[in-house]
Amino acid sequence: MRILVVNVNTTASMTDAIATSARRYARPDTEILATQPAWGPDSVDSFMEGYLSAAAVVERVATFEEPFDAVVLAGFGEPGREGLREIVEVPVLDITDSAAAFACQLGYRYSVVTTLARSIPTIRESLRNAGLLDRCASIRASDLSTLELEQDEERTRERLTVEARRAVDEDGAEVICLGCAGMASLDKELEQALGVPVIDGVVAAVKLAEGLHDYGLKTSKVGAFATPSPKQIQGWPRR
Amino acid sequence: MRILVVNVNTTASMTDAIATSARRYARPDTEILATQPAWGPDSVDSFMEGYLSAAAVVERVATFEEPFDAVVLAGFGEPGREGLREIVEVPVLDITDSAAAFACQLGYRYSVVTTLARSIPTIRESLRNAGLLDRCASIRASDLSTLELEQDEERTRERLTVEARRAVDEDGAEVICLGCAGMASLDKELEQALGVPVIDGVVAAVKLAEGLHDYGLKTSKVGAFATPSPKQIQGWPRR
Amino acid sequence: MRILVVNVNTTASMTDAIATSARRYARPDTEILATQPAWGPDSVDSFMEGYLSAAAVVERVATFEEPFDAVVLAGFGEPGREGLREIVEVPVLDITDSAAAFACQLGYRYSVVTTLARSIPTIRESLRNAGLLDRCASIRASDLSTLELEQDEERTRERLTVEARRAVDEDGAEVICLGCAGMASLDKELEQALGVPVIDGVVAAVKLAEGLHDYGLKTSKVGAFATPSPKQIQGWPRR
Amino acid sequence: MRILVVNVNTTASMTDAIATSARRYARPDTEILATQPAWGPDSVDSFMEGYLSAAAVVERVATFEEPFDAVVLAGFGEPGREGLREIVEVPVLDITDSAAAFACQLGYRYSVVTTLARSIPTIRESLRNAGLLDRCASIRASDLSTLELEQDEERTRERLTVEARRAVDEDGAEVICLGCAGMASLDKELEQALGVPVIDGVVAAVKLAEGLHDYGLKTSKVGAFATPSPKQIQGWPRR
Amino acid sequence: MRILVVNVNTTASMTDAIATSARRYARPDTEILATQPAWGPDSVDSFMEGYLSAAAVVERVATFEEPFDAVVLAGFGEPGREGLREIVEVPVLDITDSAAAFACQLGYRYSVVTTLARSIPTIRESLRNAGLLDRCASIRASDLSTLELEQDEERTRERLTVEARRAVDEDGAEVICLGCAGMASLDKELEQALGVPVIDGVVAAVKLAEGLHDYGLKTSKVGAFATPSPKQIQGWPRR
Amino acid sequence: MRILVVNVNTTASMTDAIATSARRYARPDTEILATQPAWGPDSVDSFMEGYLSAAAVVERVATFEEPFDAVVLAGFGEPGREGLREIVEVPVLDITDSAAAFACQLGYRYSVVTTLARSIPTIRESLRNAGLLDRCASIRASDLSTLELEQDEERTRERLTVEARRAVDEDGAEVICLGCAGMASLDKELEQALGVPVIDGVVAAVKLAEGLHDYGLKTSKVGAFATPSPKQIQGWPRR
């Protein structure tokens, strides 16, 4: 199968990192196609940037040139998710929900370690709307922005480890979800250090996509995600 | 004061109608500035359209030429609301929350009458996130799209009246919120017919904006709605 | 318009302070009528006192001699609110809900700073019933009773500042609601000191009352707040 | 032990009926003292009447001449409950919570059958605050006011049976709670007719009071129900 | 009446201790029959042990030789409760729910002090399903296993006192529920030390059983707890 | 990988049917091992039977002779799930949660179609504890017991289709979850007939197991699912 993994920002190095992460545990017969929006912010750390990203993500997927069997939306906050579910028939997975869904199979309570404190409300609402908030022990911020994660890997490792350990020791987390696609490569190392399962949402979403595809399941077109009626959209698509 | 009322689609006749509605009960010293996005869908009836609208709304407000003291976002689903709260300092009101907040002062349970059934999940999550879902007796669809509302006023009146009456008689609603900016002009007529308060969200948002402004209140810049850090945004603003 | 602001206790100096507070941000054409119950406790810091106050408030409003267009109930715990909504047609606002409703427009999470710890359960239930609890970061007590607030303004300022700052720093509050009518005059000073919006519920309720009145809205008489059937009430009104 | 059963209205025949009901299943060594407020409404069917009743109930219990070991508050809506918990040390039970607490031991979901539809919001909030709403299948109104219940026993029996049967057949109720002290005498007859347990809250409250008393338990005076500080209460007690 | 008190493990000394506890506050005409499963773990501190216990408890009660009027299930986690409700007609009480139901009559918030931290999720879900979680201030572990409770009474007293005091001082508990049948004998001593009501669930369940029995109430056989249809059960009962 | 699929009852033909279902969409390199308890009920349609099943399931898995990489518990109500999570290190999936987790990726609201109405409370609590209840549009009973499902396939197809269609048309379901392992073979046929995704929980659980295994994830042993301390278990294992 072919999974279209969508980085939600315009930073090509992150697109590459996400693709690498997605391929790590993908099955041999799964092809990972990675893409990024043609315009928009170079990272998403605020609501405003999320809105731009969502529109650009919708545009990118709507105009993607090759066929694909599932979409993985690789940005916390899920910019554009419901819109993608409307315009494609294949399953659309996001990394927040996928990580938390995996976590709930492995422990009673999980925590999310994310970038900046300002992202916490978005993640909180996302988990609540997915029904997964009640088993969330905490959402902790590393105080590193999305781009800072990449700049100094040692610092990133240290800050994530500190917050993840607090989640386990103080908040009662039994599983840790990494709250940003840029943290992916640290999963197994952290797992070793903390003694609890650590989940990268990109991998979780890829595995869910494979499972749904094997079973022949697609997005329901009855109700919330029905194909939009054709209508006039001024100045769109942009490119 | 000056309130910037933002129609979320590119249909100029709706922008006019919303401005007219906003002016009906505005105070004499309140100036209503009405605008619409420079690009995007001619109406918002789906998630996908909402995402495009959100980005275009953010752009429009960020580049608006004149000063204003508050923003009223005149589209159900609130496309772009949190983003606006980040990029401006003045209060940002939306019509779903404002209508429901007014309704909760006037009765124990209220219902929303909206356009298409597919919008119900969005409205439901919006009310839940605002904490107002528990007192929502029902969300009922008129099965008229946003643009159809304008096309045949008699049909619109009839359909809205039928659904609103069912909300009162069958669901226990004590107040009705009109779930689309395009229904605004029918508020008092419906109120007369049904014998319960009927609220147009545009008016409610204007009145809240006036109140917040009088009291000198602005959006909190500590936490979720802090100004985004400056960063590179490719191809933006679009115009 | 004429707003009847009801102090819920029998302390005349508090009635005056509340009236002053209400007038601060009222519109020029809004007349504030202030009153207090003819009997009952000189301050309300317990459930028992709240019950006496509620009955006395209902009596006071039912027998008020002049016409009015809205009622603002100026006591946390809202003694008598639903009863007032039954016996008058005009909107009835209370200061807990009004402050929290304003707060939710300005930030993601707010805190309430109140008088004694024993009031916390009442406020908590009130916010929950209004659907506003989920966005309440904390309710903190200053450990000053209603009457002590007036006795030593310096101490009041200090205690409120300490608790409000903790709410912002430790609990994640982005907005502060003052949890007692007696704290009103400190709003702008605290706002300056803390760097977040600070809301006095009396002002919020006055502004909501003005907005509802401008729009011609009244309490719904279908359902929970229908006028009670006439019946025999022994020894009532008391005066 | 001595249980003070408090009718919340001034209708002596209802006080007698409640006392009779309370005595039916009381233990031989339990003495039932019945009382009623010295002033207030002859029945409680609205919020307003509930507020008057609460104040009068607090006064009545505060000035009751004889010793007692527990209080049973025999009115739906629990007028004055928290106030009583502050001013006495003995346990205070009410009939809504007591009936629902018993019901939850006997089935998965229960329904309440009450008097007028306007009481439903009060009962709903009361059950929610007690944490018992989630297992409430429905609250159904007989459309008979408190006083009408007594006037025509045949009609009362018929209306209650109809609504209770609907609760079982349509709403999935496995247990029925009688939502008004005036329905008490019909419990066993309805139980026979419906084939599910039927609970009169007065009996449930009496049995809980006996249990708490046997175990030597009293109201906690740490926190919400601490004794109010002495303060000046103008014109009180009334008699 | 005759109450069958079921210890959920195979430790005879605990069965005796529970019986003693149950008899302390039982009425003179209440006979306490105590039993324990014929097989299973000698204490229940994990889910796995709880499942074995549940099956063995169901077997024990189903084959009990003498008549009884109610069942009290004396183990936190309620192993087998719903199964017992299906196979007997008399009321089945458990000690978690009973203690919390009593606690909610005496204070606004209560805490549970239990054995090991691993039991907290079970207790949490049990309270949530009973609707009693919202008023639960905290669940604290003493870090003593069920059997360790018996081994060193002095240590048990000390650890419970420390955690209970923290619940009152730090978490806002107004009432304490003892979270294990093995802690029963310390109730009054702790109550004295802490100044808040302390509830042993065995006593609470016995008193509820007496109350339900006096009122002639039995488990509803309409719905969730209907008698199972006869079917083939291989190798059962085991003895 | 090797997945141990556990039928929760002793009916060998159902074990075979479940194994067949599990193999349908398993990957070529996934080996399905199917087993059933050595004792217990021939089907699970009540709480009591669920408790027996849970103990027998725990015993069966604890003594299983061959190695395996994941467990799929193929019975609604999840008898023994948490116990299995304690005693094995590999992931343990159940069919209720797995089906609902898949459903939430494909539509906004899903319904469950199950066997008898008496199972509805169990399923409801299971979904609530998994956080998935809020998006559950309805749980509908076919009124066929587990064993009746197998007896007359035509009747089963008809009853399921009727209830599933009602779920879509009347309750707003966008996805259907089959609520019993015995319904598995009808998934694609129903999907065709209804036009919405239809999910067999056995398949969903197998696919989740494959995904978790690929990613190297195991059950967290910190907290709720830590290995139980060794202790004396009388008469166990039974065989």
Structural class of chain A: alpha/beta
Strand order of the largest sheet of chain A: 2-1-4-5
Element-level helix/strand string of chain A: EHEEHEHEHEHEHHEHEHE
Distance between the termini of chain A: 28 Å
Number of domains of chain A: 2
Tally of strands of chain A: 10
Instruction: Label the overall shape of chain A.
Output: globular
Percentage of residues in helical conformation of chain A: 40-55%
Low-confidence stretches of chain A: none
For the sheet with most strands of chain A, the description reads: 4 strands, parallel
Radius of gyration of chain A: 17 Å
What do these coordinates show?
The structure is a homohexamer of 239-residue chains. Chain A is α/β, with parallel strands linked by helices. The first copy, chain A, has two domains: 2-94 and 204-214, 3-Layer(aba) Sandwich (Rossmann fold); 96-201, 3-Layer(aba) Sandwich (Rossmann fold), CATH 3.40.50.12500. Chain A has nine helices and ten strands. Chain A has helices at 12-24, 47-62, 81-87, 95-106, 120-129, 146-151, 153-171, 187-194, 201-214, and strands spanning 2-7, 31-35, 40-41, 70-74, 92-94, 110-114, 136-141, 175-178, 198-200, 233-234. In chain A, the strands form two sheets. A four-stranded parallel sheet of chain A has the order 2-1-4-5, with helices on both faces. Chain A has a four-stranded parallel sheet with strand order 7-6-8-9, with helices on both faces. In chain A, helix 1 (12-24) links the parallel strand 1 (2-7) and strand 2 (31-35). The longest helix of chain A has 19 residues, at 153-171. Chain A is globular. The model of chain A has no long low-confidence stretch (mean pLDDT 93). Strand 3 of chain A pairs antiparallel with strand 10 of chain B.
